[in-house]
Amino acid sequence: METLLLKIDRNEMDVSALEKPADILKNGGLVAFPTETVYGLGANALDSLAIKKIYEAKGRPSDNPLIVHIATFEEMERLVDWVPDMAIKLMDAFWPGPLTMIFKKSGEVPDIATGGLDSVAIRMPSHPIALELIRQSGVPVVAPSANLSGKPSPTDAAHVVKDLMGRVDCIIEGGSCEVGLESTVLDVTGEVPVILRPGRVTAEDIEAVVGSVAVDPAINGDVEFVPKSPGMKYTHYSPEAEVIILTGEEMDVIKQINFMSDNLLKMNKRVGIMTCSENFARYRASVVFSLGSKENMEEIGSNLFDCLRRFDEEAVDIIIAESYEDEGLGQAVMNRLKKAAGYNIIEV
Ligand code: TXA
Ligand code: MG
Questions:
Q1: Ligand approaching nearest to the C-alpha of 79
Q2: Ligand 1 near 37 CB (within 6 A)
Q3: What is the pLDDT of residues 145-161, one digit of tens each?
Q4: Fewer CB within 10 A of the terminal residue: the chain, N end or C end?
Q5: Angle at CA 16, nearest 5°, toward 10 and 21?
Q6: CA distance 58 to 273
Q7: Is the bond leading into 239 cis (omega within 30 degrees of zero)?
Q8: Mean pLDDT of the 3-23 span
Q9: How many whole angstroms separate alpha carbon 286 and alpha carbon 58?
Q10: How far apart are CA 100 and CA 122, in angstroms?
Q11: pTM higher than 0.70 for the full model?
Q12: Are 58 and 77 in contact (CB under 8 A)?
């Protein structure tokens, strides 16, 4: 398949440039586009055949439901049966933005979009290209992250081109994604909202608006719990190399990482170390990458997926990563990092 590449500058956006991709979406094709979280691979949410193509292009298991993206509040009406009061408060506070909410679905949402569930995930992205594209297409747009299934989510157009060139109709190249981690997924169908996937909108942010919030215990990888969000049970974010996380007192962690690295280097392995700017100069390895300052979790989160992909380009055999505080935005960072590591964590 020939893939149309379309470069669009979000700051000097010519809205007529989006006519073509909007048409492709409306007519059952696939368009990859930037959002503030990660790039999405979009299809018309009301067109079962178009949605089927998404699963094929990504190699995604068909029981993993998709998020429906909308550009106006009015679009909610045809997609859900009813909107709980707490969801209205959360929409006011966080839409457009990186919060996805799970509602009871209406009859208009095809089963293939929700993996057969009777609920539907909905979000209104804040990225101007995403909003304008959805608005011009005139339909709600399902969009999983625009990566091959199992790979780190794409936070830059180059990542999408690498994974999906020749597999989709159009890729909009719109620069890098500000948040860099997928949206927070929040189930609002019960009494208390439950976080199924942590993201930039944190538990504390949600609690401040609606008073209480619970977190699905399965997000930490405890095998006792089956995740309520089907997508969370699959291996994810996996670079080619094995990933190991070390946690503990900072100085002990640094010492132990260097000890492991020295041994692996002696065995002729290519070793990658993922650290923060503060500790960057303290390591010996084949490749050392910094995610940014450990005092700035926004920066760490926005660079994580790109960094995992850069280690692949460096063809390292193993990636040894420092860990972060499992609170606030650190919860989302650690959730993705632990999944990338297949829960391979060493406490020192
Ligand atoms: O930031 C994002 O959310 C990005 C951008 C493109 O918007 N999209 C994204 O989609 O991350 P995806 O398909 O990679 O992840 C969707 C997650 C999966 O974990 C899926 O299982 C969950 O949302 N999900 C979707 N519908 C659900 C439902 N009805 N009930 C529970 N979980 C659901
Ligand atoms: Mg994904």
A1: 1
A2: yes
A3: 999 998 999 999 999 99
A4: N
A5: 80
A6: 29
A7: no
A8: 96
A9: 32
A10: 5
A11: yes
A12: no
